[in-house]
Amino acid sequence: MRKTIITLISILALSSMGHSLYAQEEASSDPPFHIQDYELGRGLRFQGKGGAYFMKIRSYVQSTAEFRTTSNWDDMESRFRVRRARLDIEGKLAKEKFSYRIRTDFAVPNNEDGDDLYSGTLLDAFITYHLNKNLKFTFGQRSTMTDNREMRISSDALQFVERSRVTSAFAAVRDFGLFIEGRYQVGSWWVKPGAMIASGEGQNNFRNYGGLKYGGRIDFLPFGLFRSMGEYSEVDHARQLTPKLIFGVAYSYNVGISSRRGRKGGDLVYLGSDQQTETLPDYGKLGADFMFKYQGWTVLGEFNWAYARVNSPEIFYRVRSNGTTANLRSEDGLNNATIVDYIAGRMMVGRGYNIQAGYLFKAGYSIDGRFTYLDPDNNSFLNNEQFYNRDKYYTLGFSKFLFKDAAKVQLSMTYVNALEGTKGSDGEAHGADAEMMGRLMFQVSF
Asked: Where is the signal peptide (predicted)?
C-alpha cells in the first residue's frame, strides 16, 4: 500500500510541477493553476492558466454487508467488507488533444494469492488522443467495449449493489490494447461505432499468451443523446425530458485464450506434443443490449452468447497451477473428442440474459427489480456446482440517494434457483433448491 501511495503522490507532484513550469514561462507572478471547483461526487478539479490544462482527483468508497442462506434455513453466512475504495486521477491537455486517466482500487489485493490484502491494484491507466470531437484513440488498460452494457457504466453508478450474474459470467472487465471510438449524427439518430485490438489477457497481465483479441461494438441512439451523460449511469437521475434509448451489438474473438473468459491470462494453459508450444483454444463472444430512460424510469436488457473453439488434435498437455504438466491423453485418459469437452468445461461458454427496471422518485428513493438467467452449454464452467449451477436470479432493490450517486444507501434481496448438486462456499452440497442473498451498501464519492 505504501508503494501505491508513494506512486500517486509522485504523480501529483509531477503534475503540479508541470503546471508550475508552464505558468512560470507565461508569467512568474501568476499562480500555476487554480482550483476550478469542487462538488460532492465530481471530485476536486484543477485548471491551468487559460483553461488549456485540466486535472481532476476523485475517489469513492463502498462499504457492504452481505448474508447468504438456503431455502432450508440451516446455515447463514455473512460478510462485512470494503467492497471498493477507488482513487481516480484524470486530466486533459486541450491544445495537444490528449487526455489520460489513472484509477486504483485499495480494496483489491495486488498479488495473485490475495495475501497482500488492501494494498491496492491498478485498474485503469490509459492515454487518449482526440483526433476531433467525433473520433478518439485510446491506448492502455481500460474497460472493453465488447462487454455487456452494464460494464460501460462505472461501479459507483449502478442500480443495484452488485452487477448482474451475466456480467460475472461473461465480462472480461478490463484489457490492455488500442481502442478506437467514434460518434456521428445521422439525421435525428446518433451512431457510435468502436473497434479494439487487445492482449486478451485481462487487467495487469502483461505477458501475452496465444494471439490477440479483436472486437467491436456499434450503438444506436434513435432519439438523440441522453441528457446529463445519462448513458453512463443506470438510475435516471437526470429524469430524461423525452424518451431516450440506446441499443447495440458487440462481438469479440480471442485468438488463443488462457483463462475462462479473458479476465486473468495464464490460468488455463495447454501445450502441444513437444510439451513446450502453447496450444490454446479460441473464445468468441456475441452480445446485444439496450437501455431506455424516461422521467425517472430505467429499463436495461442484455444478452450474451460465448463459445469456444478447441483444436484438440494439437493439444496434449495441461499446465497445473503449480507449473507442472499432465498428459491429457495418457494420464487423464482423454481423446480428441473428450479433450474438447474437458477444455470447454473449464470455460465460460453458453448464454446469459438480464433484464432490469426501476423507477426513481423525485424524493430520491428508487425501487428496482432484476431477472437474470444463465443457460450454460453441456460442457461449461457455468455448471460448476460451487460457483454457478444456478440458473435463475430474482433481485429486488431499494435505494435512497442522498446526493444522486455521490452519497447513497442501497439494499437488495436476491432469490436464486439452485440446481441439483449445488454446493455452498465450503464446497459441500447443501441439498437445498434455492438460496437467498441480502446486500446492504453505503457509498460516498468525494
From this structure: 1-23
Cell of 44: 476536486
Identify the sign of the CA torsion 412, 417, 423, 429: positive
Mean pLDDT of 118-122: 78
By the 8 A CB rule, do 122 and 204 touch? yes
Tell me how crowded residue 341 is: count the other CB atoms within 10 A of its CB. 14
Which tens digit of pLDDT belongs to each residue from 205-255? Answer: 878 899 999 999 999 999 999 999 999 999 999 999 999 999 999 999 999
- CA 384 to CA 401: how far, in whole Å? 37
The pLDDT tens digits for 318-335 are 999 899 999 999 999 999
Digit-coded pLDDT (tens) for 284-313: 999 999 999 999 999 999 999 999 999 999
Selection from 247, 357, 370 nearest residue 296 by Cα: 357
- Encode the chain in three state secondary structure: CHHHHHHHHHHHHHHHHHHHHHHHHHCCCCCCEEEEEEECCCEEEEEEHHHCEEEEEEEEEEEEEEEEEECCCCCEEEEEEEEEEEEEEEEEECCCCEEEEEEEECCCCCCCCCCCCCCCEEEEEEEEEEEECCEEEEEEEEECCCCCHHHHCCCCCCCCCCCCHHHHHHCCCEEEEEEEEECEEECCEEEEEEEEEECCCECCCCCCCCCCEEEEEEEEECCCCCHHHHHHCCCCCCCCCCCEEEEEEEEEEECCCCCCCCCECCCCCEECCCCCCECCCEEEEEEEEEEEEECCEEEEEEEEEEEEECCHHHCCEEECCCCCEEECCCCCCCCHHHHHHHHHCCCCCEEEEEEEEEEECCCCEEEEEEEEEEEECCCCHHHCCCCCCEEEEEEEEEEEECECECEEEEEEEEEEEECCCCECCCCCECCCCEEEEEEEEEEEEC
Rg, C-alpha atoms of the chain: 23
Give the separation between CA 391 and CA 382, rounded to whole angstroms: 9
Q: Is 62 exposed, middle or buried (0-12, 13-18, 19+ CB in 10 A)?
A: buried
CA–CA separation, 394 vs 138, rounded Å? 37
